Amino acid sequence: VDLDTAKQELEEFIPHVRNISDSSIRKMAGRDLARFKQFKKQGIAVKFGRFSQKENNQIRKNVEEFLLITGIDSAEKLLFTSRYPEDKETINRLKAEHLFCEKLSEGIPRPWRLIYYRARKMFDPNNYKGRYTKEEKEKLKKYHALHGNDWKKISEMMSRSNLSVAMKYSEIKSAINYGPWSKEETQKLRRAVEEVIRKRMETENANSLSSSEKSHREILIDSEKLYQKLPWTEIETKVGTRYWRQCKQKWTTILTNKMTKGQQLYRGTKGLQAKINLIKRLYEMKVEDANEVNWEELSNTIGDVPKAYVQAKFYKLKVSCVPFWQKKTFSEIIDYLFEEKLPELEEKL
């Protein structure tokens, strides 16, 4: 297929295709176009965004089957062939002979490149090495001073994944405070959030509202804007002494206190009732993956609270109540909470 035809045909499935480089479009025409057309016949749309548990399981199945067919003895060798120079030629020959691209993407309606990156993330043993030691943090600072943002090189030197070293460096690049928040830090956080929300509202409303409507609109900031997606890295820079995740967690706490007028929603009988409601609603939703949960709808089950508050409470619930939760799928976790934990909570209440 020539380049213009490829762009035209791919545009049906990937609207932003004309922003992609020509070499990537040629690869997509070879790896993805026929698959996308097949999925269309089955009434399945091409997906982007976070991978579901079902898709992750399909990737595992595809990789395991390919290893069985070829006799390659590990997923790491298959997906990180450059780490094994002595086997590289044999592995690449087996990948070509047994159509690695097709096998890896089987049953998953996404661009091949995204499936490949996801598989590498799932099967990279360097992704699961636990906390960084003080020595590793010092090494990371030193390697960054020498190699800048060449995360591939740094990851090889540290035997950690690219993503892991990049994220850890963003945490340690400045003096981050891990203790209780001071009044001054909390004020800085409030100001930073207010600035980004006002800036966003000014952009949205610049041409569409009269001045009287704008002054009325500002009164509605609380309900409309305060827990939408916010640019946390920008807020981190404005606060200066905290990592972006700390800022996000602190903001959720501030909002929860404001919205509940300081009541402790997760204490005593109220806490038991909130857990019971949460488990029941999650079970009723019958979803296969956490990404499919409407957390905003769930927040109304507990009270008028931000969705991040509900997500945090669910995380605590599964960690404290579900044995070996890391090895269970989302639906298995919900079933366990419903069948085993719920009767216990109801009796306690």
Automatic annotation (TrEMBL):
Q: Which Pfam families does the record associate with it?
A: Myb_DNA-bind_6
Origin species, per record, is Pygoscelis papua
Its Gene Ontology cellular component terms are: nucleolus
* Leader sequence segment: none
Q: Which gene encodes it?
A: Ttf1
The biological process GO terms on file are: termination of RNA polymerase I transcription
Record SMART domains? SANT
Q: Which InterPro entries match?
A: Homeodomain-like_sf, Myb_dom, SANT/Myb, TTF1-like
Question: Myb-like domain location, by residue?
Answer: 124-172, 173-255
Q: What protein am I looking at? A: TTF1 factor
Record domain HTH myb-type: where:
124-161
Q: Listed GO molecular functions?
A: chromatin binding
